[in-house]
Amino acid sequence: MASVTSLSDSVQQHLASALSATLPEAAGADPLLRRSDRADFQANGILALAKKAKANPRELAAQVVGRVATDGVIKDVEVSGPGFLNITIADRAIVENLAARYADETGRLGVPAAANPGTTVIDYAQPNVAKEMHVGHLRSAVIGDSVVQLLEFTGETVVRRHHIGDWGTQFGMLIQYLDEHPHELDHKASAEDTAASGEEAMSNLDRLYKAARVLFDSDEEFKTRARRRVVDLQAGDPHTLATWQKFVDESKIYFFSVFEKLDMEVRDSDIVGESGYNDMLAETCRLLEESGVAVRSEGALCVFFDDIKGPDGNPVPLIVQKSDGGYGYAATDLSAIRDRVFNLKANTLLYVVDARQALHFRMVFETARRAGWLDEDVTAVQLAFGTVLGKDGKPFKTRAGETVKLQDLLDEAVERATAVVRDKAEKVGLTEQEITENGRYVGIGAVKYADLSTSAVRDYKFDLDQMVSLNGDTSVYLQYAYARIQSILRKAGEARPAAHPELELAPAERALGLHLDQFAETVLEVAASYEPHKLAAYLYQLASHLTTFYDQCQVLSADNPAEVVENRLFLVDLTARTLHQGMALLGIRTPEKL
Ligand code: ARG
């Protein structure tokens, strides 16, 4: 499928060939093209090349200018400053290029599909069984889902893995308690009402957990029975496993209700929790021990690293198997790597996990490298994210210091967003049903956008007031930009969007058009670097260009000649499509009326 080349691509090519014609040794060099305020683009690459060739940069630049082909794309190129090139694009080229993209039925908006797509296994949205999800799980889900959309859009094969915490000694106590109190997980809510059953599931689990804990701490005999259960569980006793499964199923009811509220697809078949690797653990240890990657130390199987030391200066090992024979988090992750590399045939392993687990992943990845499971062809990356803070700048908790219930948090976001939507509903003519639906899209979009619009590694403040604000860098600002365009298109009546390359463009039209042109390279860059915040920034700028455009250019004015109306409708329609696609890549909806 031929994709539509972007203008910056063709400018880049024009410059590169002029450059290598002038200075053969510069063949393949990057002219360092940037969007610029002085002209449409500026190229800064000649300075370094001149230095290398011991040439005068301004003279070299002037020679390059003489060789730049003016074939309709580049209208003007001139030397500026110490040897920069300022490049102006022909209006016609801007419109023709965008028109090709507009006509492209694949709807890819100029984004080429990867020539050699690989397989990425992405580990994200991994809550823990029998525990309340917290804001960290929300971040992993939101960032991970956006990266999935981005990678799939570029043609990558993506395998999703929700590595839920579903195994460990804590289950002994829970299983024993449930066996002794068999009705603790019964439901009143109907299975169809996912939100209600999700909430009920979590409160059941929470209540059971607390009661089991109290008994465990106060009743020695219960403690002994609970410990025996851990042994039964590890030995695969069928009855014990069946009870354990009840916890997993109950937790999934809760997880799915949260993901549904988040308007996010999580498939059951992609949930492969820690227990999914149990069969591989012994072999993983054997392989590591036989190859000498891991060694026995005080009975435990350990991997040591020169550069990883504790506060006392002693090396801190990665413990693959404890001295009592038990396996932990690391053994599971190492087994998962083997599964993902050798069975799922991944080229890239991506982990969307809290930055506080960075040391764990560094040690796990290094161990896998030493074992030969990871190499230049198969790489592993932790897409680490920062902590969610409350308005007070401290880690986000309730006043009592407890985990904030995600359901409540999302409900509150939707409630506030619905109030914002309702305020304008009459003017826009929204039905009650549309108000409810838009309230969800705006509220959930706000939460996602706040998370995705800052660089993942940074901590960010969870501030609902700011998130649903109509002004500033928020999702609702972008959603309004989209809906406003739809309203114009509806009002256009007979007039249809159509490109008119013969027209001269106003400055705001050029700025909007050139920014639209950058969509493809932005998406590719963002997908390659796993940085959705750069896509958010791009979309925010797009909406800002649109605002300036409205200020300076009337679309449906009776004073406009028909071609101008059509051309402007075309520009705004392409802007809407770009906003819609870009937001979808962030996992955010764009309602038609708002
Ligand atoms: N369940 C873990 C947590 O809640 C996250 C799992 C991350 N993924 C992994 N492969 N270790 O922190």
Automatic annotation (TrEMBL):
Keywords: Aminoacyl-tRNA synthetase, ATP-binding, Cytoplasm, Ligase, Nucleotide-binding, Protein biosynthesis. GO terms for molecular function: arginine-tRNA ligase activity. Residues 9-89 form the Arginyl tRNA synthetase N-terminal domain. Gene3D superfamilies: Arginyl tRNA synthetase N-terminal domain, HUPs, Isoleucyl-tRNA Synthetase, Domain 1. Its EC number is 6.1.1.19. Pfam families: Arg_tRNA_synt_N, DALR_1, tRNA-synt_1d. Its main location: cytoplasm. InterPro entries: aa-tRNA-synth_I_CS, Arg-tRNA-ligase, Arg-tRNA-synth_N, Arg-tRNA-synth_N_sf, ArgRS_core, DALR_anticod-bd, Rossmann-like_a/b/a_fold, tRNAsynth_Ia_anticodon-bd. Belongs to the class-I aminoacyl-tRNA synthetase family. Monomer. This is Arginine--tRNA ligase. It comes from Streptomyces musisoli. The gene is argS.
